[in-house]
Amino acid sequence: MIDYLLLIVGFVLLIAGADYLVKGASSIAKKLKISDLIIGLTIVSIGTSAPELSVNVVASISGSAGMAFGNVVGSNIFNFLAIIGITAMMKPINLKTSLLKVEIPFAILASAALIFLAGDAIIDGTPGILSRSDGMVLLLFFAIFLYYIFLSAKKGEIKEDDAAEHGTKTYSVIISLLMIAGGLAALIYGGDVLVDSASSIARNWGMSETLIGLTIVAVGTSLPELATSVVAALRGNSDIAIGNVVGSNIFNIFFILGVSSVIKPLPVAGENIPDAVITALTTALVLLLAYRGRGQRIDKVEGLILASCYVAYTIYIILR
User: Fold this and answer.
1) Which of 19, 25, 87, 281 is 20 to 30 A removed from 316 (C-alpha atoms)?
2) Residue 52 CB coordination number (10 Å)
3) What percent of the chain stands above pLDDT 70?
4) What's the whole-model pTM score?
5) Are 89 and 300 in contact (CB under 8 A)?
């Protein structure tokens, strides 16, 4: 029972820590005269993925490679199937042309790069591993993506309203720094508690760390994205609702797995490769549904299809 309570405590610390980190960092950025657009595209976007980053860094350092890999892949599948599905069932999501032609294909590229780098066993028969050099490659792709974002913002292709909705509020410098420090502490401690308790639960149930990472941990660390997308959809802001998810998926693979494997090379089990392939397929499915003859949108029926696919995927990995 104590492990389950600690698991909940870990999730609460991760979400609260990310929230305070974003508020404190946004406040400091505002005082430094950094625009709301840049704050939204960087600090807030990264903040919603902070739980995944915290869990992966802790898991990487502690040698829980299965959980580190499963958390990212599971979060990405949950984001595209469950979050977009649930959001679309509440209110149809309209997609901009740039999202369909650049950002979503870039997310597919991220999944393809992960499959190529992690699939050594398939390509050349050697044990699968995300090495430090692989991590550097992923981080290079992330730098290219950030360059594209800033270039688009500079050209006016991304407007102020297209950035994450954050309602930046300023605090005193001391309060802001305390919020940043407290948020980081909560993320680090929460990640440590969550990884330890999830690993213990996996052992007690005879489940692999990869399965725990793909399910419980992945869903829990994706709660900030779910909350952001649902609120944005209800307010009629489709760009934020889906842009938040797409950006998070790209960040998860290129930055989080990149940092994790640079810290410590991540062994990749053969069973992880199909999950990485499914990540690419789910991204392609969203792109296909958006072009399915009803304009550039994901409607309620298509949302139901996506959510149903997530249920089917969850049953598949549990039975596997």
Assistant:
1) 87
2) 32
3) 86
4) 0.81
5) yes
